[in-house]
Amino acid sequence: CKLYEDVADLPKLHYDFVVVGGGTAGNVVANRLTEDANITVLVLEAGLSNTGVAASEVPFLLSELIPDTTYSWNYTTVPMPGLDGRSVPYYRAYFLGGCSAHNGMVYTRGAAGDFNRYANLTGDEGWSWDQILPYFLKSEKWSPPADHHDTDGQYNSTVHGTDGPISVSLNGFAWSTFEDKVIQTTKELPDDFPFNLDMNSGQPLGISWLQSTIGNGERSSSATGYLAPKFIKRSNLDVLLHAQVSRLVNETKADGKPAFKGVEFKYGDSLFVVKASKEIILSAGPVGTPQILMNSGIGAHSALKALGIPTVLDLPSVGQNASDHPSFYAMQWEVNSDDTFASITGNATRYAEGLAQWNASAKHTGPFVDSGVGTHIGYLRLPADSPAFVAHADPSAGPDAPHLEFTFLPGGYGTAGQNLMTIDIAVVSPVSRGSVVINSSDPFAPPLIDPGYLSSDFDVFALLDGISMAQRFVSAPAWDGYIGAMTTNLTGLNDVELAAFIRETTGSSYHLVGTAGMSASDASYGVVDPDLQVKGMSGLSVIDASVVPIVPAAHTAAVTYAFAERGADLVKQRWSLST
Ligand SMILES: Cc1cc2nc3c(=O)[nH]c(=O)nc-3n(C[C@H](O)[C@H](O)[C@H](O)COP(=O)(O)OP(=O)(O)OC[C@H]3O[C@@H](n4cnc5c(N)ncnc54)[C@H](O)[C@@H]3O)c2cc1C
């Protein structure tokens, strides 16, 4: 096996490419580069092995995986003024596969406008929707749902890939009572909530069936897909676990620019240096990547100087421009049905039966084949006369891009056994921005994570509209006799009280991007050029979610896969590698 748990087993400390972080993007890069048998690649992953971690395999065990565990870095944000001074937990995965191995598995790509805006911003048409779509397809293997139900009318096969490493499917266990009502609402209120056959066509507006990175009822991650046995056995690919990179070292000059030839990492209590003769690729994610850049002297000179870190390159945008989706979870109602997630989560016998059913066959079946995140997703625009547009000009990527995401689930966050339904609301076109910076010269000290939630009033107004729109959704006749009281009664509150409640309760979607954002080659801001090389450096690239300059109107894993696929192609072109 080329997956090493012990540094003493690593065959060498000199490779052509060193990829820092075996996460969502890093494993894509490692896989694609090693298609050329003549080059060598090492992946350094700080975290643990994903092998045998049941909660990362069985989709419905998600809720056991996400809270603070040994598989998470267990960060907490700084106190945020927009959240009434609250800090919130900030989960990032600490095992092979990165966040793709512990996320909610929701598969969404965003609006065509998101990518066309990236192309405009960078001056590189390669990031436009038309040119990035082939990379979405390249990473994807559309798969039948675990229950093999008839999926006609639930997705559009022409916008999906069939041969990629990441399985994507519709839910494989029906919650029919609830699902029928969601679809019925799209018929009763079609102007406000139209049905959309497939939100992943680049035209996401409307209500679509949920798609997830699941195949055969199992989670599909960058570890199970891009590092599947047939890839990890390549003689030119090595992966080392438990190796936390501190900084880049062996500074030199190449093409008149600063360059690093070595990567320093900690294994156990010792530091090691591995050499990269061609390129170092940072794929440590939107928290880890800016941290390593700053530890290495790449960042705002004033901040580095204050910490006593010698500046290699003054690049003030490192760690800035962070964007993420704030999430509001309180739109929750009691329901007059026991066809809800609580029928499993609130009943130890049915829970054990469901897990046993999943384990009973290699072709998994039963309620544990799905994530339990929801049944449908809605992407919606604010009304044209929304007060949000007084607070700020429309931040969405265009008329086909949403401001809000609704996730519909026959469950909720109540007491065990309580039959609930929820509409989770996220602002997917936030104006607020934050940062991830270091505040210590100790490279292993956790960075300061500030997603900046609700620092712009636009985002609060958008949630206020979202609350009314969710109430309108459940006012459709479809819900008569089914829906009961809200678990927190928001109906009597005025907008000022509601806004206060939003600030008290809003949390994270964990969709952080932008902390090593790309910009045009001649821009006076940004961290990487459109080819993902760090501006002003030689032999150093960033390929992960941190290069995405503005958070897309989507959960960010699919976008990360597509960016990593194109990023790997750009590296291959640069070094004339075979494909
Ligand atoms: C709780 C949660 C739920 C989410 N749900 C969804 C969802 O349902 N759908 C969706 O599309 N997106 C979801 N996301 C977001 C999505 O998963 C991420 O945007 C995406 O996976 C980021 O990929 P990445 O490669 O940039 O970073 P990561 O996948 O985080 O990879 C970074 C890797 O680098 C490693 N690393 C970090 N620092 C170092 C270091 N110093 N040395 C060595 N290794 C290091 C980390 O351990 C990690 O393995 C979720 C995220 C979280 C946290």
UniProtKB/TrEMBL annotation:
UniProt domain Glucose-methanol-choline oxidoreductase N-terminal: residue ranges: 285-299
Keywords on record: FAD, Flavoprotein, Glycoprotein, Oxidoreductase, Signal
SUPFAM superfamilies the record matches: FAD-linked reductases, C-terminal domain (SSF54373), FAD/NAD(P)-binding domain (SSF51905)
Positions of the catalytic residues: 511 (proton donor), 555 (proton acceptor)
PROSITE patterns linked to this entry: GMC_OXRED_2
Molecular function per GO: flavin adenine dinucleotide binding; oxidoreductase activity, acting on CH-OH group of donors
InterPro entries per the UniProt record, alphabetical: FAD/NAD-bd_sf, GMC_OxRdtase, GMC_OxRdtase_N, GMC_OxRtase_C
Cofactor list: FAD
Binding sites annotated in the UniProt record for FAD: 103-106, 245
Family in the record: Belongs to the GMC oxidoreductase family.
Descriptive protein name: Aryl-alcohol oxidase
Lineage: Eukaryota, Fungi, Dikarya, Basidiomycota, Agaricomycotina
